[in-house]
Structure formats: structure tokens, C-alpha cells
Specification:
By secondary structure, the protein is α+β, with helices and mostly antiparallel strands. The protein is built from 6 helices and 28 strands. The longest helix has 40 residues. The chain starts with 38 loop residues before the first helix and ends in a 7-residue tail after the last helix.
Length: 586
Amino acid sequence: MSLLYFQRTRLRKDFGTPINFSDFKGRMRSIPSEEVGSESEKQWVQKRYQTIEIDCTPQYAQHTADTGNFVQKNEGTLFVNGAWPKKIKGGEITERQRYLQRLTAEPAYHMEVPRVCDTAANTVLQNNTLNLYEQHFADGDVFETDESTMSLKTLCVLKDPCNLNRHATKLSWHPDGSGKIAVSYSTMKFQKMNDDTPRSSYIWDINHPNQPEFELIPQSPLCCLRFNPKTHDHLAGGMYNGVVGFWDVRKESRRPVSTSNIEFSHRDPVFDLRYVSSRSGTECVSVSTDGQLLWWDTRKLERPIDEFTIRTDSKEIMGISALEYKAEGGPTKYLVGTEKGFPVLVERKAKKDQPSEKKIKAIFNQGHGGHFTATRGIKRNPVHTSFFLTVGDWCAKLWSEETLKSPIMISAYNHAYLTAACWSTIRPGVFFTGKTDGTMDMWDLYSKQNEAVSTIKISESPITDICCNKRGKLLAVGAEDGVTSIVALGKGLSTAQRMEKEVMFEIFEREKKKEGLLEKLRIVERKRKERESKGKSRSPKNIRVRDTAKEEKARLKAIQKADEHWESMLKKLQNGAKDRGIDNKE
């Protein structure tokens, strides 16, 4: 059935005036005079009152449902010896073989196996096409290393309670990450210490920075102080007079529990001290500028249990200014920084009922060599422990203890001396360096190798030590004015980046191979110069005469050239004077 319709059209001008609806106040419409008394008026009755109900409450519909109780109980299946039927004893091999023979003889078995294989093959092909188990964000939060995430925030400042100006020489965080930090105070400038200089060092709690939590009073000002990583209530410190002391915080005694005999101690101030790996957890090693490494047992601290002196091939003693020890890098390896500017690797192998074997395993003084001043800091990388960092003079150098004796990376020279260094405990490519102008450089080798990502002004006095806590979120910076600043690292500095460990290892290995090739070229160049020197030494008289004649000829030629130049200048001056009408008889 077709649809019937009628269409009518007309022009726009025939529509009339457009209707415009708008809101306006109500008004009373009067009845026209011609309609008064008419029939239409009689149809209307005036109503005096009117009631209107208004309800603004929204309407709701209520529905109820009665569900049954859900009873939950734990059930499990125990497979003692495979998923065999109850009639089959799983422990009997013969019964299992008979059952498998009956199962494989059934016609349904040969039909079911191909179907299962086809399903498994399709699943395998799908997994090869698209990895369903790929983790796109396996590393959690990753923050780009821009200026906003590489910032620092000062949490608190720990000021030395002493009125005299003392240096905050060494810092040591509490191993349990509770926010406690031990700070040793001393005056390291030559002949600036007298009998009235205070000797106290303190243990601080950054949650209560107004006053120290515990006071340590040694017999001489402490130059270094360390917590025991196994027994957190034990501390060991090295003093200005070369003596090593031991404290137990649980005994609430400010005096040391035991100290070493000054006769068997260092002859110079103890520059650094570290606890070493041992069964008892009470052994430590100390270094000083007298060139000695002394091993101690805090249970018997009267005299050292072992000692070793750093000497050159000419039997010259090298003073030690820095120490680094990590059990992860080798429990028998000790890295020391010398006053000559280059690091030395010492190996000590303890033997039962026999004297330990100690030797210098490597001296890193080839290629570019060490620093022009004493090594002020030496730190191993927390992840790739075969690589370590040293600071001294105006630059920082990165080394590899494997085969090479020259640095693999060198930073640009600064205007101020570098005095301290510290690796981040979370990110293997981030380290911090302190300088004598009170600024601290933050380096991120993961994103930039040619310069520091940021430089922050920490103090008005030189920085003495930098220490990062175990979680890698807080940094303690000590200065020569006795102030220790506790700063919080930004997310870009305290959060590991994606694949950072692998990338940093590749960067270190690349620089290591590059330096290895340069070292081979240096050896070839050295041998070539040796051959040339040997060839010249065969006829020294003739070579000397020939060189002297050549030098005399060159000298006479230079004198003649200078005389000609002087005569030409005089002629030009005389000609210029004549042109101006000046009679120059001279």
C-alpha cells in the first residue's frame, strides 16, 4: 500500500511577523468595553481564592530483593601420586601401565588427542604473535631527569653546639634508616687546635634537630666516626692524636668503652675508619697520613691485630688521605687514596693460625695519572663495585680496578678544589661532589656525561663530607663551619630509572674499552721513542756538532732579517719626513 500525502508550499514573506517568546511579569487583562454585558461575560465567574500544591521533593522508587544465604567452605584436592583414578594405585608401576594401555586402546582417545593438539598449537601461535604477558610498566614510577625532579629541599640544619669554629669532619648514617646520624667534630687546620678546644662529637636525630641525642667525649677530638653495620649500638672513631676509640650507646656512657694504646696507634690523625667483614663483626680498619693501615678488634683494642704500610718501589712511604671498603666489591680488597694523588688497591688475605698475606695489588698512576693534590675522597659504585670514583685538585675521576691503571672518565676542571664525593645508594649513575666554595655538583651519568646536571649552594664555607642514607632519599652535607645540612633529594635523583643498571654498565664498559685502546697506543708510542733514543745514542758527537751548526746558522739568519727590517723602517720614516717638509738631519 502506497503512502498518500499532501504538500503545501508558500513564500517566506507570507509567514508574517516572526513570533518572539519572552518572559515578563504577569498582568491583568481587562475585558473590552464592547464585551461588557455580553453573553461571553456571563460564562465567566470571578474566583476570589485559589489553592495550588507545589512539591519540589524528587521522586524515588524503592525496590527490595531477598537473596538466599551464601555458605562458604574450604575444599581441596590432594594428589598423592598423580591424578590416577581411585581404583588404580599410583605407587604400582604395573597397574599404571595397564591402565595407560587400556586408555590408549579406546577409539575416543585417538579422536581427542588431535583436537587438544590443535587447540594447543593455536594458543602457541597466538602467544608468538602477541605477547600477552608483556609488562609495559614493570619498573613502576619513572621520573624524567629535568630541573623540577632534580631539585633539593633542605629539611633541617644541625649546628655544632660548641661556640668555637670546628669542622664537621665525617658523617655516618644509622644503619637501620631511623634518621639518626653521627657527626665527628674537629679542627683539621695545622696548629689551630689548643688545649681549650672542645672534644665532643654527637649523635643527632633529624626529627629533633635542635639538640643532639647523644654526646661522645673522646680523649682527643674525633676526625672520623662510624656505626657498626651489624651491631647498630656500637661506634668506632679515629682521633686527632692517632688513637682509635670504641663506644657502646646502650651503656649510656659518654666516655669510650675502650681505646687503643697510643704507643701502637697512628702517628698522625686518623683520616678514616671502616668496619670490615668478619665473623665476629667487631673488626675495623683505620688509615692515616703516616702511611699505615691498622686492623683492630674492638673487643681487644689495646693494639692492632694486623698492620701494613704503603710504600713505593723506592721504599718511600705514601701518606693515606682516604679509605673505601665494601664487602660487595671484595672482602679482602681495600681502596686507599694517597697524598700523591693516585689510588692504591691493597689486598689482605687472612689465614688461620698464620700471619695474613698483605700486598699492593695495583697502583693507579698511569695514563693521565692521579690528581695534582692529595686524594680527598674515594668511593666505590654501589652497584658496579669494580668501578670507583676519586676527587682531588679541580676534577673528579672514574676508575676501573680491572687491568687498567688509568682513569676511564674525567670531569671538567672547576674553579674551586673538590673536597668530597658520594654515590647515590639507589641510582648507580648519580654521584655528588663538594667543593671549597661551598657548592655541591650533582652528576647524572645516565642522562649527561659532559657536565653536572645541577649545582647547589650549600654553605658559605668549604664542604668537608657528603653522605647518602640507605634509602637514597636523604643527603647529609658537612661543612668547615660545623654545620651539617640534611637535604631531601627530588624524585629524579632518588628513583631508579628504567634499565639504568644495564645502561650504566654498558657506559662503563665502553669507556673502559676506549681507555684500553688508548693505553695500547701509549705503549706503542713509548716503544717508538725508546728505539729512536737508542739510535741517536750510537753517534752522539756527530749529532751534537750537526745540531750546533744548524742552530748557529738559524741564529745568524734571524739577526740579518731583523737588521733588514730595521733599515726599511728608518727609510720609511725619513721619506715621510721629507714629504711633510721637515728637515731631519738625523
